[in-house]
Amino acid sequence: MDFNKILTHWYSVNKRDLPWRQTKNPYHIWLSEIIMQQTQIKQGLPYYETFVSNYPSVFHLANADEQDVLKLWQGLGYYSRARNLHASAKYISNELNGEFPTSYQEMLKLKGVGDYTASAISSISFDEAHAVVDGNVYRVLSRYFGIPTPINSTAGIKEFKLLATQLLDTKNPGDYNQAVMEFGATQCKPKNPYCIVCPLKDSCVALQKGIVGELPVKIKKIKVTKKQFNFLVFISEDKKTVFEQRTSKGIWQNLYQFPLIESETEIPLKSFKSHPSVLDYFKTLDYSFSVFNPKPIVHKLSHQHLYAKFWIIEVKRLETEGIPISEVKNYPTPVLISNFIDAFGF
Predict the structure, then answer these.
(1) Contact 2, 169 (CB under 8 A)
(2) Which pTM value belongs to this model?
(3) Domain layout of the chain by residue ranges
(4) Strand 225-236 with 304-315, pairing
(5) Which tens digits make up the pLDDT trace of 282-329?
(6) How far apart, in whole angstroms, are the C-alpha atoms of residue 261 and residue 240?
(7) 321 included as an active-site residue
(8) 3-214 domain in CATH 1.10.3720.10?
(9) Which CATH class is domain 225-344?
(10) Fewer CB within 10 Å of terminal CB in the chain, N or C?
(11) Residue 236 in 3-state DSSP?
């Protein structure tokens, strides 16, 4: 069976009509690849279209203010992707005179671009023979060949990359790479794959052995931590509030939020003013308070679960420089904060 020819033919008939498949422009391919990381097509497509509309060239993206880029990215998560995208656009614009790198090796110099992304762009835009290996590819190869090696182990990463390279259609690498990824996304899906009508069903090891649901194998490594977040939503008599930028590395870097108190356990309403962390924060400030959501909002990230409460703090005047509450929607914020702003009705 000619694995790659079957997949390429399947792709020519069944591929979804997506805007980045109508071009070989590396800038557009790069945008699509970065935006679609950890993101489903239906969620990422509007973001892609917005980015292309607002930043039609790498020069436009390079000259943009980072806050504007982060604001457009709002809701996609993994904000380091947006920061790296912006930094790489500046590098291409300033160091490469706006000429997007044309080879796999040169693309690896871009922030946020690793083996997968460089392989995808170089093969689609420049026909370089580099095989892509992403979650969809791992799933297709592990099932078709019946490979039990954990895909997130050192041995698995090497084994699947070697196999993907051996299977690559070197005469048509771009279409083949897109074919195997599309096949994993729409046909050989994580749950309830369409095995009955699969063009590879007669030689799929996992289907023959009845282990489709068991592959691919992945080692569970991430230990999820729980954190109690208490956001202080100040409202002064002159309708101002406090909005802070998170400048430290970690989640939500360079995004804005209300002042935050982290606590080891949930702070009950009746003991808010007497809680040590709250006492330390406010010291002598005179204020009245209420809680917007008595039950914490659970915001799940890949490595931590945040239990968030929003405390409404009413004061006569702010002790620090604030912003009009009508302007909070103009700032780039995490989706947790954005949802609260909408619900509260700023």
Answers:
(1) no
(2) 0.87
(3) 3-214, 225-344
(4) parallel
(5) 877 789 999 999 999 999 988 899 999 999 999 999 988 899 999 999
(6) 20
(7) no
(8) no
(9) alpha beta
(10) N
(11) strand
